[in-house]
Recover the amino acids of this structure.
């Protein structure tokens, strides 16, 4: 379970981003990727440069944003993410059945219901990381999604009530609009530590003034949040699972 605030907007004629081993420029419908090879004395050697049109599934559906060693990150919406619910559930199970989460069979089985509820949230938006080979889509290896926070903290669920009880009023004020909530951030275990999660989250929060999320204090991602400037605000427990609240503000 991961919860935080963030979202992705692409404004203007072009945007340039840099990641481990790749620099991507997103212009009007065009993605240019510079793949970086081995480095010598700290100087990267450019291995290849490719340019291709960003994929748009007619309406503002999936837009290619980032390519890294065969992995493409694309923006998605509720309609298109729902079409890949089976793959998303498989990804969730691979991520959260393992330590430190060790979610129960009941909790894992309930993912579909929670996903359906999340997809119905106003302003739902997300990014997916898809591994490709030879131009063919192979598998979903990562995803992040969420929605804009409302004017007040949510209540009525075990998670919402536990969070509200744990945060002081000063912190609670940073968890409402105009922040965006990151409901889930997950990367397939055998694809972790490659910068995929960081790339997903950085692009997801771009354009938002603030964001928040919650995760297990011993989750590998918790260290990434700390290193990337996310602030630990509160600790609480949900159904026996320890959680930590992280907040982020744009610089």
């Amino acid at each position: 379970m991961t919860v935080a605030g963030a979202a992705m907007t692409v404004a203007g004629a072009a945007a340039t981003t840099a990641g481990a081993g790749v620099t991507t420029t997103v212009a009007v419908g065009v993605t240019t990727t510079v793949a970086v090879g081995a480095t010598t004395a700290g100087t990267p050697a450019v291995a290849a440069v490719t340019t291709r049109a960003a994929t748009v599934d007619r309406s503002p559906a999936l837009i290619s944003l980032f390519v890294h060693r065969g992995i493409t990150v694309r923006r998605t919406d509720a309609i298109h993410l729902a079409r890949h619910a089976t793959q998303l559930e498989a990804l969730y199970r691979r991520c959260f059945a393992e330590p430190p989460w060790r979610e129960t069979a009941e909790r894992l089985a309930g993912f579909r219901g929670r996903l359906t509820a999340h997809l119905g949230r106003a302003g739902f938006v997300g990014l997916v990381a898809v591994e490709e080979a030879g131009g063919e889509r192979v598998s979903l290896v990562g995803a992040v999604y969420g929605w804009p926070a409302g004017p007040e903290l949510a209540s009525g669920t075990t998670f919402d009530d536990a969070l509200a009880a744990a945060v002081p009023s000063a912190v609670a004020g940073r968890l409402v609009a105009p922040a965006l909530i990151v409901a889930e951030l997950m990367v397939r275990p055998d694809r972790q530590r490659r910068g995929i999660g960081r790339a997903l989250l950085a692009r997801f929060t771009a354009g938002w003034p603030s964001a928040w999320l919650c995760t297990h204090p011993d989750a590998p991602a918790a260290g990434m949040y700390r290193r990337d400037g996310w602030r630990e605000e509160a600790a609480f427990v949900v159904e026996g699972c320890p959680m930590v609240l992280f907040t982020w503000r744009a610089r």
